[in-house]
Q: What sequence folds into this?
């Protein structure tokens, strides 16, 4: 299982463009595989130490859109494979490169049991997704065209 978790962490890093990783890293609350080893092209914005509560909340419509898209991606990955039309061109290309490793891994997680919104991460949303065999955390974000521009996952922290 350790090999699968290492592959999961690698897949999480490889499935997101640098600007979204910068947002996640700037949030300071998603360590490990969500922090990209690649150099950032722009400095990450710093979050105030005590951000107002309303700044922490995500609009219900944004959360619903993100959850529906995430569920769709997971169902596709556990079924016939990813629907590349829902991703930006850049992310679709990255997923194509990793599909042979990531798809069997996601299938090995077992049946989807629950998807719970945790919090916003920059302009993306963080979810805890529990399967029969694995608890995971996923970040999903959208581009200006409404397509999925960022998709990261890793084992859930205890």
A:
């Amino acid at each position: 299982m350790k090999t699968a978790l290492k592959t999961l962490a690698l897949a999480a890093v490889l499935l997101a463009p640098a600007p979204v990783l910068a947002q996640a890293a700037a949030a300071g609350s998603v360590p490990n595989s969500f922090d990209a080893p690649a150099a950032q092209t722009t400095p990450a914005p710093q979050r105030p130490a005590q951000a107002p509560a309303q700044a922490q909340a995500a609009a219900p419509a944004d959360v619903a859109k993100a959850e529906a898209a995430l569920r769709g991606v997971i169902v596709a990955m556990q079924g016939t494979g990813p629907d590349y039309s829902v991703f930006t061109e850049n992310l679709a290309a990255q997923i194509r490169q990793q599909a042979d490793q990531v798809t069997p891994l996601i299938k090995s997680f077992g049946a989807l049991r629950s998807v719970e919104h945790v919090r916003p991460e920059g302009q993306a949303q963080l979810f805890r997704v529990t399967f029969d065999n694995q608890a995971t955390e996923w970040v999903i974000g959208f581009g200006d065209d409404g397509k999925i521009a960022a998709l990261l996952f890793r084992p859930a922290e205890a």
Observations:
- The two ends are 16 Å apart (CA to CA).
- The first strand starts at residue 112 and ends at 121.
- Residues 1-14, 16-55 have pLDDT under 50 and may be disordered.
- Strands lie at 112-121, 124-131, 135-142, 148-155.
